[in-house]
Amino acid sequence: MWASGNTSSHPASFILLGIPGLEAVHFWIAFPFCVMYFVAITGNITILHVIRTDHTLHQPMYLFLAMLALTDLVLSSSTQPKMLAILWFHAREIEYHACLTQVFFIHAFSSVESGVLMAMALDRYVAICFPLRHSSILTTAVVIKLGAAVMMRGVLWVSPFCFMISRMPFCPNKVIPQSYCEHMAVLKLVCADTSINRAYGLFVAFSLSGFDIIVIGISYVMILRAVLQLPSGEARLKAFGTCASHVCVILSFYIPALFTFLTHRFGHQVPRVVHIMFANVYLLVPPMLNPIIYGVRTKQIRDRVIPDCCGKEP
């Protein structure tokens, strides 16, 4: 069934294939994805609970970490329940507006995550380069404003994706050969010139993630310079240790994100199954790893989680 309007026509629904080429093992592939999703949900909710209930953690670093955890919850939950339904129950159909909603949440909150990582890099820069002024520069009000700006940036930059797609006609083919609705995958089903959409997609990618990567890079260059000027090796090691968790989180997010972005546009020789697996990794592994990395490497969080798990007082 097709719906039509004054300026566009679109199918009532799309068909998501899951992981084409691995249909015979879809049932078994779903188990590790389910475990990773469970770890992501449990870990990020735990991080949010610990930060909310312990007022000593209401500091810039932990407030940004709470923003990251909330973003990870939205990002993983926007795709994983539907993907598990596809792999386990062959529920491949997704309603048209639900598909566009998924496009919005995936891209908007990916940009929010990138922005939060940038804000965390600025926090580490101020903490190491201006330790005596850290609390006066990054006040709670400033942290909230930064978080709001990152959120608004993602919403305002990504919303045109859905608006432009909704105004375009679609071809009879309504099959999306992956496990979730993504901007470029949906755009390939449009029966019209999509050069403006593709150009805008590149603009958003470079103006958001590109800007964030540059700011993160400059922040860590300044951090490295400041750390190397510290008088003792122990002080340098401690300073590097405060940044190690953030660096791990940055790498786990940007490496699969860049691979997915580049293969969608330029990697025509990359096997489809490799591309789709990386696309799933990009939206699931960082939300799973982030609470583990910060839970293991951050003493303040680790000391509060372990007693709660063991039923002991800290």
Strand content: under 5%
Oligomer state of the chains in this structure: single chain
Structural class: mainly alpha
Biggest sheet character: 3 strands, mixed
* Shape, per Cα inertia axes: globular
Q: Helical content, roughly? A: over 70%
Major beta sheet, strand line-up = 4-3-5
The overall strand count is 5
Q: How far apart lie the N and C ends?
A: 60 Å
The run of helices and strands is: EEEHHHEHHHEHHHHH
Overall pLDDT level = 88
Number of helices: 11
Q: Write down the Rg.
A: 21 Å
Point out poorly predicted stretches: none
GO molecular function, one term: G protein-coupled receptor activity
Protein name: Olfactory receptor
Main location: membrane
Membrane topology: Multi-pass membrane protein
